[in-house]
């Protein structure tokens, strides 16, 4: 039976690089309409590889999906181009932010709306929305992005993704290298977008504490395998999650026992 609540489904995904390095062995999770889902795991667990697979970006890095299924709505992601997926509403903010450093903040934002042939008034209205979400960007709109702070670049990258009006916003480690207050601010804004616009969000994070605070559900990857799919509130209470991912011990010291079978909930 097809679950119409599900926007993105990943089933038994297996992926390699160069046909030799197995990065993902068995990854399964889903994102329902209107949910925030966190994808967690230690360094090298497979978060970025999973996100790249969702936008069919692995071939650019000599990566291959060798088994499993990914559906974004009715679209089979494995047969769609990255550009077609963006047009369908699956939009990523890649790790490292990747602003156009020589363009101003506002030019960066506008570039996000170009792919959907928006009118000038639509672009202006969307810019105002983004400035309301991130007032810092309004102050900096005429500044060259390369001269703005890491937090402002992250906000610019998120704003640029929003300009293409995503149905699913995917973010890879938005907290990376940012001060805790800036990270709080960014996650609060993501929650606001989720609540006010019912934007569905998938966020890969090493900062499990902040991700579990703001997500509805979470998936924890260990060595390319889904170890747990569960409600974020439940995961926060589990002592082994606290030990391994919320700072009580290091992740290398143990493994998680599944809370629920590691399939789509
Ligand atoms: N371009 C690549 N070529 C070969 N192997 C890669 C490539 N990218 C990632 N890998 C390998 O795939 C595995 C998963 O890496 P991935 O970057 O997906 O993990 P991650 O959870 O995002 O880690 P991090 O949090 O450190 O970014 C690792 O063993 C990594 O070394």
From TrEMBL:
Statement: the UniProt record of this protein carries the keyword Nucleotide-binding: yes
Tagged with keyword ATP-binding: yes
Signal peptide location: none
The ABC transporter domain, residue ranges: 8-248
UniProt organism field: Rhizobium tropici
Protein name according to UniProt: ABC transporter ATP-binding protein
Coiled-coil region(s): none
Family the UniProt entry places it in: Belongs to the ABC transporter superfamily.
Taxonomy, superkingdom: Bacteria
Gene Ontology molecular function terms on file: ATP binding; ATP hydrolysis activity; branched-chain amino acid transmembrane transporter activity
This protein's UniProt keywords: Amino-acid transport, ATP-binding, Nucleotide-binding, Transport
GO BP: any one term: L-amino acid transport
């Amino acid at each position: 039976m097809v679950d119409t609540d599900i926007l993105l489904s990943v089933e038994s995904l297996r992926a390699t690089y160069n046909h030799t390095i197995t990065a993902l062995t068995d990854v399964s999770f889903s994102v329902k309409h209107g949910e925030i889902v966190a994808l967690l795991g230690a360094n090298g667990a497979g978060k970025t590889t999973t996100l790249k697979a969702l936008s069919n970006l692995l071939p650019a890095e000599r990566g291959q999906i060798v088994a499993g299924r990914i559906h974004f709505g009715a679209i089979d992601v494995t047969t769609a181009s990255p550009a077609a997926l963006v047009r369908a509403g699956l939009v990523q903010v890649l790790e490292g932010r990747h602003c156009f450093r020589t363009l101003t903040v506002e030019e960066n934002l506008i570039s996000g709306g170009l792919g959907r042939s928006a009118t000038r008034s639509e672009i202006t209205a969307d810019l105002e929305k983004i400035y309301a979400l991130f007032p810092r960007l309004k102050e900096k709109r005429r500044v060259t992005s390369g001269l703005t702070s890491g937090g402002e670049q992250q906000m610019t990258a998120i704003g640029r993704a929003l300009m293409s009006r995503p149905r699913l916003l995917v973010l890879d480690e938005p907290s990376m290298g940012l001060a805790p207050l800036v990270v709080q601010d960014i996650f609060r804004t993501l929650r606001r977008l989720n609540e006010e616009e019912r934007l569905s969000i998938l966020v890969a994070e090493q900062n499990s504490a902040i991700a579990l605070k703001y997500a509805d559900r979470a998936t924890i990857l260990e060595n390319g395998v889904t170890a747990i799919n569960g409600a974020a509130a439940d995961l926060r209470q589990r002592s082994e999650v606290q030990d391994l991912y919320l700072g009580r011990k290091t992740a290398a010291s143990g493994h998680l026992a599944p809370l629920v079978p590691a399939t789509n909930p």
